[in-house]
Structure formats: C-alpha cells, structure tokens
C-alpha cells in the first residue's frame, strides 16, 4: 500500500491525470483482494506461518486497517473531530497489544466454561459465562465478534454482542432516590458526593506495595537480555496489572452504584487534556481515571434510565459557597476547606463543589440541605448560574447545563 502511495505521488508530480494514477487498496474489499490474489504466492515467503492462523484473523486485521485508513482521510478532510489521526503503524509483538479478532466462522461460547475458536479449537475459560450464554440461547443477544488478547501472560477472549436492553422509564423503577447527586471528581479522592460521602482512590493493598518495591528492585538488578530479567519483568507486570484491575473495578463499582441509585447525576466538565499538560497533576489524573468515570456514567445512565448532567467547564463549583452563592475567586488548589466570608459556612472543599454541582439541577434548591447535616438554612437565591465569565456574580439564575448521556 505504501508502495502504491509513493508510486502515485511520483505519477502526480510527473503530471499524469488523476484518473490514470495507480489505484491504492484503501477499502476492506480492495485490501482483501490484494492479500488473497496479488500476495497469494508471496505469502509463503513473507509470512510462512500464515496457514497456521485462522484466515479470519487476517481479514479482521485488514478490516481494522481499512477503518484506520478511513479515519486518516476523515481526519484530513475535517470530517472527524478530535486529535488528528496519523497513518496506521505496524504492530509488533510485545510493543503493541497482542490481539486478534474473529467476526465470522464458528466461534463463540461452547457451554458455560468453554469457547470455540477457529483454528485453535475448544478452550476452557476461567470465568463462567452464564450471563452471556443464557442471553445467546434465548435470543436476547447476538454475537458480532470475538477478540482474543493477551496481557501479562493471561489470555482473554471478549465478545462483542448486541443485547436487547430494557431501559427503565420513570424515576421509581429501581427504587432510586429522585434527589440529584453532585459528584466532584478529584485528585485527592476518586470522588466526593454531595451527600458528603467520600470515595477514596483505589490504592495498592499494603502487601502489594512491598511486593512492587521488591519486584522493581529485582528487575533493576537483573542483567539486560537475560532470562532472569524476562521473568522479573513478567512478575513486575503482573503486580501492575493486578493494581490496574483493582482500580478498574473501583471505578465500575462507583459508576454503577451512582447510575442505579440516583435519577440525576451532575459532574463537572473537567478539561482533562488540559490537566494532563500540567505535569504535577498528570499522574494523579491518569491514576484515578476521571475521564473514565465520566465515560462510564454516560453509558450507564442510559442503561439504568438515569440522567447525566455535565456542568459547564467554567462553572466555578469550587469557588462558590454552596450555602449562599458567595464567590471566593482567590481559592487555590491547596485550600482544602471552603470558608464563606458572607454566610460563615465552613465546609470541605470537595463536598462544597459537589453540592454546587447538585444545585445546578432544577428542583434541587428546595431540597438543598447542608451536606454535613448541620442546621444551616438554605438561602433562596443561593443558586449560581452557569456562566462563561468567571467572576460575574449572577445569583438566582438557573443552570444551563445540558443533559447528556445519549452516547452508548
Ligand atoms: Zn456562604
């Protein structure tokens, strides 16, 4: 393909008309044709192992290449949002994610404890798949594909399925509270809720930190290129993978609970990309996966019939008093407690922000109680508008945060 592209460039510069240029295999059918016809004889020399693998693996790989190329074109033509997409890169064992994919052929669960994979045959799995096989059996789910991947010496198979999901309508379907909840996603804690509850960052368990230290020390001392180094690298990777799994579990537990127990969840539109550029915050932000919390809430609120509201990025949730709306423009990141100089409210910084987020949702003002359960009365004009200009006091207006959560 690259050869065809450079050939094309050469032809263009020598003035050959557009319709006479060398065609580039840009789509899946073209790529497949190229591989199965033009490269058929060469397969034996460039990839002598090709016959050992399911032909599906190549087809799925070409499919991914084709969609990658499509993204490149779309990005260049301005039809795709976000960061500019580069030309697809080669994958390399150990560098890229080790994975392959089936989309056709006889693959899928075979009973509750086995999967059938073309060319590999029947494989036992560690996790029971009852939830999947039950849905497949009675037609509530349809298999679209399977991806086999390897991380830290473990093999995984993940199935893409289309599932009929019943979206609960109405607020009382799952005995949820109609009261909205504000969620302040943070660096110090994973999240602080407007109810005053703090969800700590998932941390390494005590023993794991010690193991991590000894494993990284052992790895650092090993000889480069030796088999001992390989083993120690694997051990270190397993410890990291375990911590990553625990973190992921913590995030999912939180987002599922929120989406199931509250009708409306209000989060801040953090400029995560901007925070990542601030190097001091970068690690912590990566660790807690704030963007991931929002992504999960976006689809889980759809699943469970609740609503996600994302506050405007410039909404000063931390700098505003949740009791009276007084603004402290001088608040810095190191101020852990919010002290209101207007009404005297003293409140944890993150709880204050969470309460402000909750107050953005219409109808919550009357229910506003002090997050700490103290005897403070709510000020009637205490709600603060979502305004783009920080510093303009505008009490009494309704927030203009748009409900989100249609992205599945
Ligand atoms: Zn106040």
TrEMBL record:
Spans of biased composition, class Basic and acidic residues? 369-378
Q: One biological-process term from Gene Ontology? A: DNA recombination
Could you cite one Gene Ontology molecular function of this protein?
DNA binding
Q: Which UniProt keywords apply?
A: DNA recombination, DNA-binding, Transposition
According to the UniProt entry, where is the signal peptide?
none
UniProt keyword S-adenosyl-L-methionine, yes or no: no
Q: Which Pfam families match?
A: Cas12f1-like_TNB (PF07282), OrfB_IS605 (PF01385)
> Where in this chain does the record put each Probable transposase IS891/IS1136/IS1341 domain?
159-278
Domain named Cas12f1-like TNB is located at 292-357
Annotated segments matching region Disordered: 199-231, 366-408
InterPro entries with a match to the protein in the record: Cas12f1-like_TNB, RNA-guided_DNA_endo/Transpos, RNA-guided_DNA_endonuclease, Transposase
* Composition-biased stretches (Low complexity): 391-408
Family the UniProt entry places it in:
In the C-terminal section; belongs to the transposase 35 family. In the N-terminal section; belongs to the transposase 2 family.
Matching entries from PANTHER family are given as:
RNA-GUIDED DNA ENDONUCLEASE RV2885C-RELATED, TRANSPOSASE
Q: What is this protein called?
A: Transposase
**Which species is this UniProt entry from?**
Candidatus Protofrankia californiensis
């Amino acid at each position: 393909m690259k050869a065809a592209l450079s050939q094309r460039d050469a032809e263009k510069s020598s003035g050959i008309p557009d319709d006479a240029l060398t065609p580039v295999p840009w789509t899946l059918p073209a790529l497949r044709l190229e591989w199965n016809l033009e490269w058929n004889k060469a397969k034996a020399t460039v990839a002598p192992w090709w016959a050992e693998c399911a032909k599906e693996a190549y087809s799925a790989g070409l499919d991914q290449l084709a969609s990658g190329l499509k993204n490149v074109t779309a990005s260049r033509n301005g039809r795709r949002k976000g960061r500019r997409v580069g030309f697809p890169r080669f994958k390399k064992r150990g560098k890229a994610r080790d994975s392959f994919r089936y989309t056709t052929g006889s693959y899928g669960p075979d009973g509750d404890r086995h999967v059938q994979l073309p060319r590999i045959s029947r494989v036992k799995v560690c996790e029971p798949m009852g939830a999947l096989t039950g849905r497949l059996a009675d037609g509530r789910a349809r298999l679209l594909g399977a991806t086999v991947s390897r991380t830290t010496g473990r093999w995984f198979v993940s199935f893409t399925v289309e599932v009929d999901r019943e979206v609960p309508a109405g607020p009382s379907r799952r005995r949820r509270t109609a009261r909205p909840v504000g969620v302040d996603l943070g660096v110090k804690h994973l999240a602080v809720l407007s109810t005053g509850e703090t969800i700590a960052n998932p941390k390494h368990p005590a023993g794991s930190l010690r193991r991590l230290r000894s494993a990284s020390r052992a790895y650092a001392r090993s000889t480069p290129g030796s088999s001992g180094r390989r083993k120690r690298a694997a051990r270190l990777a397993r410890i990291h993978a375990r911590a990553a799994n625990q973190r992921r579990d913590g995030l999912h537990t939180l987002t599922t609970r929120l989406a199931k127990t509250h009708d409306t969840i209000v989060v801040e539109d953090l400029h995560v990309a901007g925070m990542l550029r601030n190097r001091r915050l970068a690690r912590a932000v990566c660790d807690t996966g704030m963007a991931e919390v929002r992504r999960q809430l976006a689809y889980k609120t759809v699943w469970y019939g609740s609503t996600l509201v994302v506050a405007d990025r410039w909404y000063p949730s931390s700098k505003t008093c949740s009791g009276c709306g007084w603004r402290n423009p001088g608040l810095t990141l190191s101020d852990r407690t919010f002290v209101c100089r207007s009404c005297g409210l003293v409140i944890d910084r993150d709880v204050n922000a969470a309460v402000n987020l909750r107050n953005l949702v219409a109808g919550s003002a009357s229910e506003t109680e002090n997050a700490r359960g103290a005897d403070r009365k709510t000020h009637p004009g205490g709600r603060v508008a979502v305004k783009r200009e920080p510093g303009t006091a505008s009490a009494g207006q309704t927030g203009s945060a748009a409900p989100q959560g249609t992205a599945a």
